Amino acid sequence: MSMRYLFPAAAAASFCGILLFSAQAFSQPPQPPPAVIRPGAVWPDNRGQHIQAHGGGILKYGDTYYWFGEDRGQGLDPAKRYVSCYSSKDLAHWTFRNQVIKLSDPENFGPHWVLERPKVFYNARTKRFVMYMHIDGPAGGRPYGIARVGVATCDIVDGDYRYLRSFRPLGHESRDIGQFVDDDGTAYLIFEDRPFGFRIARLSANYLSVEKQMCLIPAHMEGGALIHYQGLYYVIGSRLSGWAPNPNKYATARRLEGPWSEFRDIAPPETRTYGSQSTMLLKVVGTKKTTVIFMGDIWKPRTQWDSRYLWMPLEIGDGKLWLPEPKPWMLDLATGEVSFP
What we know:
Elements: H1 9-27, E1 36-37, E2 54-61, E3 64-70, E4 80-88, E5 95-104, E6 114-123, E7 128-136, E8 148-154, E9 162-167, E10 177-181, E11 187-193, E12 197-203, E13 210-217, E14 221-229, E15 232-239, E16 249-253, E17 264-265, E18 277-285, E19 290-298, E20 308-313, E21 315-317, E22 320-322, E23 329-332, E24 337-339
Antiparallel strand pairs: 1-23, 2-3, 3-4, 4-5, 6-7, 7-8, 8-9, 10-11, 11-12, 12-13, 14-15, 15-16, 16-17, 18-19, 19-20, 21-22, 23-24
């Protein structure tokens, strides 16, 4: 006579649930490792084309990062200036979204007019995206004599931006610009004022103008980038050497108004910042670590379309900042942790 084991209905259901859970657990594919960022290499987008976002800036909107920068690609209309937009969920794989600026000479600056270093802010109050850019051209016998910022806006982050106007912020010359949004959400513009140094200024409530100067740092530097980290402000700047790289330097302060410390090298000076120039500092806050990324451009003036990018996590804290020698690296956006393949 055969034996039969009888299970209560609840126990049978529980047993089946355990089997189903176990099957699902084993069937789920492992999470892919973070993607590798390779400083100085060709950086292909989703189309396989080298990313054209030079002198750029990053805006995080929702759970997506948007990278805006100068499009210096081949075959473009030489009478126009272009800004491209890319999106990413991991800061490594980038999808081309749009040439958000395709601008002819907007204010009759002349055939050699310049549009450089576009930076985009999102204004939560007006629900508009506001782009600042360096607008310039020949004036008074100087190739960069106009020295203004331009402003453009759009209702959609990757839409077609409408150029509004250019002006000298607070009446001062402005060449290279940088963007900074503090931890309290206040937006600032960094701009190089050639006769005096470089300035950090707060934007107006609608972001369409520059409202108040926070400080003038009397150092003749460009490529300004700023971050707030563990109670200190860190600012990076580059010497005035045109396309040629030079030793970038940093200073610190407890308040934007200063006083600021003396400037110190961010890397061995003989490396000339590993051939790059600062454009932005990007802070990624994870569950385990906050990582600050140095974003730099490796300019190639003769083949501008092939200019590269140097992104590296910084060694930062206690008033010290250091750019390690570039090598491939990975970032876990959830935890903020950096690793090396």
